[in-house]
User: Fold this.
Amino acid sequence: MEFLNGLVFLTNFVIIPATAYGAQLALGALGITLVYAILRFSNFAHGDTMAFGTAVAIKITAGLVALGVTLGPLPTALLALPIAIIVTGLLLLGTDWLIYKFYREQKAKPVILVIVSLGVMFVMNGLTRVFIGVRDIQFTDGARFVITVRQFRDATGLDEGLAIRTTQAITLVTAVIVMAALFWFLNRTRTGKSMRAFSDNEDLALLSGIDPDRVVRVTWLIVAALATTAGVLYGLDKSFKAFTYFQLLLPMFAAAIVGGIGNPVGAIVGGFLIAFAEVTITYPLKKVLTYWLPESMAPEGLVQLMSGDYKFAVSFMILIIVLLFRPTGLFKGQSI
Amino acid sequence: MTDNAYQDDRGNKDRSITKPGGGTAQPVAKGGKSTAVTGSAFLVGQGMTGGYGKGPDILHDCTIAVDPGEIAVIVGPNGAGKSTAMKAMFGMLDVRQGSVVLDGEDITRLSPQDRVVKGMGFVPQTQNIFTSMTVEENLEMGAFIRRDDLRDTMAQIYDLFPILKDKRNQAAGELSGGQRQQVAVGRALMTKPKVLMLDEPTAGVSPIVMDELFDRIIEVARTGIPILMVEQNARQALEIADKAYVLVQGRNAHTGTGKELLADDDVRRSFLGG
Amino acid sequence: MTDTLRTGLFTGLVVLLIVGTGVLDNWNLALIIVNYGLISAIMALGVNLQWGLAGLFNVGVMGFVALGGLASVLISMPPVPEAWSAGGVQVLGALAFGLAVIVALVASYKRTSGRLRAGLMIVLMIAGFFIFRSIFDAGVAAIESVNPASTGFLGGLNFGGDSGRDWPWIVVIGWPVGGLLAAGAAWVIGKTALGLRSDYLAIATLGIAEIIIAVLKNENWMSRGVMNVIGLPRPVPYETDLQADPGFVEAAANLGVDPVTASTISVKLAYSGLFGVFLIVLLILAQRALHSPWGRMMRAIRDNEVAAEAMGKDVTRRHLQVFVIGSAICGLAGAMMTTLDGQLTPAGYQPLRFTFLVWVMVIVGGSGNNFGAALGGMLIWWLWVAVGEYGPDLMVWATSALSDDSALRQSLVDSAPQMRFLVMGTVLLLILRFSPRGILPEK
Ligand SMILES: Nc1ncnc2c1ncn2[C@@H]1O[C@H](COP(=O)(O)OP(=O)(O)OP(=O)(O)O)[C@@H](O)[C@H]1O
Ligand SMILES: [Mg+2]
Assistant:
């Protein structure tokens, strides 16, 4: 019983939030890893792409709600998501056409593209701020919980409760669907395979009749879908603020690199790894240990290993440790 | 520093933000048209002059041709421009002068993709497989421009290179050098090309496998596909060649049938070691 | 156009913009721009050394700037004796213990291997962490409980009177100390991130910058965290002192300026002078370094690392060197900035402003060209302030065709302050596209 209570407590405060956060990070890291694999640079504008996509979704959600269209127990934002993806996709295609394409034609070195992406980051950041402002925005509606603490306690008779918020459940379900679709696309479809071929060997892809421009276009569209989905899920789960999204860049990069940048499986594993580490190390574990350890050994302090502000430090320490031992990341990077 | 400011990466090697090893081709731009011409060989690079980027000319008025049922071989010292000539004929390099004609069409302005569609197949000298993809996926990518059923062609290739059938679900990067070359040739055959260009297909393979590869290549040539091939093993290559070219410093030094060149004293002395 | 002419024209443009601001708007604003512009120019010099000379991609400028700011507090603030006696020794002891654990970890990593190594390291890490925390937390709690509203931290090393006003010179000492602190951090980061087969400096610096800010926000015993340290001593006179000085009032009257304006302008000019001296010295040093054998070697490494390595150059070591020096310059600038601000506000450090804006300065000015980077710093800083200051007015004017109560107009005017980012990004993209080597290209 004690053990179960401890486990329920841990699940409620650490495992469930970390899983949801991990899924969001993984989706974000997937976008970064795809751009890296195919366009060969790290896209610093990715956090702001997420912010832009989410901002669009928020506006559309507001419009839908005003029209009286909702999804019942599910958040209306899910309905807005496909449209937001299309808008973001158009923005990315436009950015590519207006900006990145020129550098590809010049055969610019990847690091030049990284600097270009800094410029794009500034512009997108400004665009989002102008578009939706800098305030904190809550845009979730529908049912708040799938299971509430009370329901759980009544059902199990345990002291500790466990709640699953709708947004957490949705995050997980959506992330699983999106990831499965992505892997199916990359490994099973002609276009997906041509993207992998292009990432592996550009010249040979050209010799095989693969159209690089098409590969790049499809990549941006997928990145738009991944970024917008990740952004909307994160926003539903927590809240939307342009600056927070910019700050997600570090954990997302860390996730992508820990996993082996350029490798989608790595991005997913990296996302969950970073999320679990962040949440576990910055959450006070006193209660769990009180349940699990014999009374004499029960801890006095909060057993919060580090204060919450250090969550970036956690992502970073993991990154460094992994890179010291495996310079290419957990999974060999640089291929999709 | 380079001339092109966009290519100046200041020696940065930061792998956390950039992925090395992008393409080096400077292909003919998309959207060019072909025009009909008459009276030349099936595939011919006529008077090609050109080089990489803004650099000096590597090729100087170089001409190479091949007709159906023939094997044409290019030999020459390292750095002569053999690979460059092949790339130029495939549109992976924009020639400054000269033209490329395929089957009565001037294709000089066609992009590499369009040339694949026109029926050309090319196995480059290096990096000629997708290492992270399986053997079967490599073959599928070879047939990227085809929309019909690939199974027959793939079966033919597995017949030609039986070892590939056993390894078809293995990553091509995990194969041996000789097996990789087979994958590379197989990939190029997947489009059912009208002409096949091979840049040192036997590089790095053992003599036994080399003989076998030569046999396979002859087998392919018998089916009527003209083959243009660069070879380092000059003697062996000249023996099977219907037409042969010796390139020196980007220029045609000798041209003739394989037998003629084998008999030529000059060629023997300089390239065949006596 | 010759290089000198180009440099002259660019300098002229920057001077014109600043003088224009002074003449058309007000001189106080113009001098504020000059002062922060000089600091930005120094930061740009530091980044230019790293990127321009060695191709190192440092996206953690903010962290080094913040470390400089911290140093400026630790040196120029008066100490808090009660806090020191309450827990100072304990905290320092805990830190020393932590350091010893890290040294032991490194030693066991190097000396042992296999299972033994893994076991030893895990035990050391876990035991070390908890012992450290138990000593450290108690000390911190003691320090932070000392008069939390105004101090609650250890203070600095300024023993010059009550609020440190008797020792204005120590503030200037704090600036190079900021550089040293940043250099130390850079050495640790560079050592780990530059050593491997392929480096990963970008992600390492991005991360460390966030960590440094987290430390500053959290470790109240050291930096007062988000409660900010205010009232930092200055190296220059205070306006109120000047206004109370009869000599100064008389001099101002002779010039026909009222004493209040005269005092604010004088203080700013004094800062400009100090910062200007630093910038000029650094520029001279940077120019000499660039044209010295060392600079030529750095460029040789940058342009062809393989050849340089074959000639026996230790590339990693040189990279580490230049990374440390560049970061130190950023730290120096950061310390100067905190002094100029008169306060340390850890929450105010934002990557867009303190890392990426500096990058814009370098790229726009001309990477690889010291004058280019420095002038780029001034120019972009002017633009940054100008868009913030005049953007809203400009937007009101630009939208005057719309009716006053139009929602679109309202939202456009409201969002004008956010235009800064849009403008900076656009400028960067335009320069990258049409003048990829920057306004003053490297020779
Ligand atoms: N991508 C490139 N960019 C610039 N110059 C190149 C490039 N590739 C080859 N060259 C130059 O072109 C010349 C001819 O090279 P090429 O590869 O055509 O020689 P090759 O005859 O195929 O030699 P090998 O027998 O060694 O394969 C060489 O001097 C080489 O340095
Ligand atoms: Mg060759």
The CA atoms of residues 47 and 249 of chain A lie 5 Å apart. The interface with chain C takes residues 42, 99, 102, 111-112, 114-116, 118-127, 129-130, 133-134, 243, 246-247, 249-250, 253-254, 257, 301, 305, 307, 309-310, 312-313, 315-316, 319-320, 323-324, 327 of chain A (CB under 8 Å). The mean pLDDT of chain A is 90. Chain A has 14 helices and two strands.
